[in-house]
Amino acid sequence: MEKLKLLLLAFFIGFSINSWAQNTQVSGVVLDEQGMPLPAANVVENGTKNGVGTDSDGKFKISLSNKNAVLVISFVGFVEQRVKVDGSKTNYTIKLASAATGLEQVVVVGYGKGSRKNLTTSVSSVKADQLNNGVISDVGQLLQGKVAGLNVSTSGDPTKNSSVVLRGASTLNSSQGPFYVVDGIPGVDISIIAPEDIVTVDVLKDAAATAIYGNRAANGVIMVTTKRGSKDKTQISYSNYFGIEEVSNQIDMMDSNQLRAFTTKNNLNFTPQNDKGANTDWQKEILRDGGAVSSSHNLSMSGGGEHGNYFASVTSIKKEGVLLGNEFSRVIAHLAVEQYAIDDKVKFGLNVTNSNSVYNNVPQRNVVLLQSISHLPVSPVRNPDGSYFENFIQTGYFNPVAMINHGDDDTKTNNFVGSFTTEVKLPFGFSYNLNLSYQQLNSLHGEFYDSYYQKYNSANFYNNPDPPFTRSLVNFGVNGSALRNSYQNTNTIIESFLNWDKTFGNHKIKAVIGYSWQEDVLGDGFQATNTNFPVDDVSYNNLALGNYGSVSGYRVDFGDSRAYQKKRLISEFARLNYNYKDKYLLQGSIRRDGGSVFGSNNQWGYFPSVGGAWRIEKEGFMKNQKIFTDLKLRASWGETGNSSGFNAYTAQFISGSLGTFYYNGQQTGAYGPNQAANPDLNWEKTATANIGVDFTILKGIVSGSVDVYNKKTTDMIYNYAVNPVLVPVGSIVANGGNMSNKGVEVALSSTPIKTEKFSWTTNLNYSHNKNEITKLTNPYFIGGDSIRRVQPDGGGQTGSTLQIFKEGKPLGQFFTLKYEGKNAAGVSQYRAKDGSLTTNPAIGVDYHYAGSAQPKFLMGWDNNFTYKKFDLNIFFRGVFGNEIFNATRADLFRPSTAMTNNIHADAANESPNDLNAYKYSTRFIEDGSYIRLDNMTLGYDFGKVGKYIKKIRIYETINNVFTITKYSGIDPEVEQGGTAPGVDSNNFYPKTRTFLFGLNVIF
């Protein structure tokens, strides 16, 4: 009888289990905030790998293994939602909130995260799907035009990174770019991040947001968060693109018929050595045939279990430049692992990235670009016997195609970043973090100029450096010249901090206190050069085959004697956030930094900040209004510093070689001081006051922010000329100058149209910044309140400068001759210092202020359209109110030299008798404003295809579709970073138009 009872009990239990198993299928639909279906959303049973994707109507069905299951619903760009299954309910309608505009959006800040609704500081966030599309290899290009106040300028050269300036230049040093923090690791070389691995980019703008990074944050901080795995789903993704780039514009030079007509008209004659009856387009000859090809492949895998997750990816990028022999390739491997232990109270994280890059540069690139526009079209590329055409009798006349094909300039880098993190959850709302990171950059560089280059030495071969540097002579030895160097940079960081997150009724407190230790070793390596090789084929690969000893006067170049540096930074920091009823918000932080690069009397600095916000919509008097669904007023002040742009020895006394002197019948080496010590060298300090308003109106249809800021830099570091009686060297690196940036930023987001089949989302950002050098003096400085600079040294322009550092003027202030047309004799005349007209102006004396390279306004306008499964993105950006000094055009306006060098087509009506026509002056300062249709992308989403493919999307992108501008140069997007912005000086790498085809697949 007992056995029968047990059998019956087992039967009923089994029947009940079977009945539940047969009835665990639930269904539903996933919608966005407007009630529109979300196809390909992920619906996963929590704690398992059991999951499905929604269909084209946002619907799903899933069989669950547990009657108490929790559904995890996620979709890119939306806040993840968890729904507990109710046994009495089998159909669910689930609405996801947009992460891009929702107040609950999580923003990454220094040493923590926070909800956007409770921020007291100015932070802009860009999600992965909002980043720029195209053939892109650095984060600067991804953000171009996307963030108010962020000025990004790019080159057509694939081996050159973008210049990024946030809220105007803060220093006269060359280092003006923001400080990058990747996954919590400070100071990461941003080039190692694959664009496809990025989740969000948070741009910390005001000093209250950045002060937690102390002396490294004067130029702003950009936080990059990369992808992580999920314990709720396993996913394999593959994306690739294939692109073709073509030159979008060239300088309008005379062809052989035009130039021959001009010389005949003006009684000029080509020399027989140059005139071979050709019609050569030299700009075209240095370009690749058929355009440049680019490609990218990214394969990633992610997943996890109940107590851990992983993400791994491999990215391969290859990008050809449009110039011959110019290309760039990179392979990036990335692994991120998180593992929980001790009831998930301890989390270990391992994050490893390795990037291997190869840069094939154009040998003597800027000289090649200069020669391609100045070479006569009547000269051929090659002689009838196949050898390169050259006229070595003419000074400074080199065949640019021969220069490319007889030289090598290559760099290989391997960049490794690894971090190990530990987070421990402690009682009473405390948590402890320990972060260890190590970065190592190895570079191997080689240059070789074969025996062909020996022919150029007698012609006074000058280089053509980027402004503000001035050209210098280059000697290529005999029978080939080779250079080889190998350097290693390492960066070791230990950061330890304690967080406290606690709620007491209506009061919420978040606090962090921590310690940071960092040591950098730079330039650990060597360099050597050699000449006089037996053959050319060896290139730079075997310096031992050279024989410099038999070349009179040749000296081996062992590189910079100060290449090796060791720097140390030790810091303590703290931050406190107080929140009352989610209505009144306060934040304060302080960081104490000690740096070895500064003077012995000033190695420690303090960087405080304070901020507050009032969420007005939470007040009782706002309950009955129907305009605002969110309204927040915030204000902040903070101070940051700058410790970059100068080396570890800047404040120290250094002796070195001072040439030779004649003593006792022979030349003897002279040694003595070549750098003065400055024990009082202090931090540059940048203080920013910011007032902002965040708002959402019309029931969430429109949201935005407005910021007004005042940024002041004091104690700017600069290498001042001083009285040699006081400082024997004649110069000293010291604090002395001040700079101001004042501006307004506006960002708006809206979804004007949202229907079942069609939607339109638009984002507009606008910014205005006024830059001014407010002080440029030092007790030792003997140069007054101004410094003339930027000397391109074009033909006949010796001593002529283009810009000036001047109190009361902005960085990039043009200072030059004022062009006043032509006199009765047809000769160009200029306004003298005393106001009279002259045809013989004095360089540096008869100069006038003539506009600025600083833009008055920046604009970005992003539009996303969807229709059924089609999506279209149209992105415009613009720069307004800046001037460009077109020194390239000036150097091509020399009609008297038309028989030896080509001239601009616009110079056709110039007279060879006007020897002033080409002088650097206001005649060649042009409006640099432009509007560019920067990107158009059309895509189609096939959704789920078959059993294993969750999503397939194909797309086509066109970059640099068209540009509206009055600028007569190749492109108005000239360099905006550095200390010589807005100068177009015979070195402009051609901008390109890209046609790109791409594919994204999720398995």
From TrEMBL:
Q: What Pfam family is a match, any one?
A: TonB_dep_Rec_b-barrel
InterPro entries, per database record:
Beta-barrel_TonB, Beta-barrel_TonB_sf, CarboxyPept-like_regulatory, Plug_dom, Plug_dom_sf, TonB-dep_OMP_SusC/RagA, TonB-dep_OMP_SusC/RagA_CS, TonB-dep_rcpt-like
Please report the record's description of how this protein sits within the membrane. Answer: Multi-pass membrane protein
Annotated ranges, domain TonB-dependent receptor-like beta-barrel? 389-960
* Alphabetical UniProt keywords: Cell outer membrane, Membrane, Signal, TonB box, Transmembrane, Transmembrane beta strand, Transport
Among PROSITE patterns, the record links this protein to: TONB_DEPENDENT_REC_3
GO CC aspect terms: cell outer membrane
Question: Locate the TonB-dependent receptor plug domain: which residues?
Answer: 117-221
Q: Which domain of life is it from?
A: Bacteria
Q: Where is the signal peptide?
A: 1-21
Q: Where in the cell is it found?
A: Cell outer membrane
Q: Which family does it belong to?
A: Belongs to the TonB-dependent receptor family.
Identification of the protein by name = Iron complex outermembrane recepter protein
Organismal lineage: Bacteria, Pseudomonadati, Bacteroidota, Flavobacteriia, Flavobacteriales
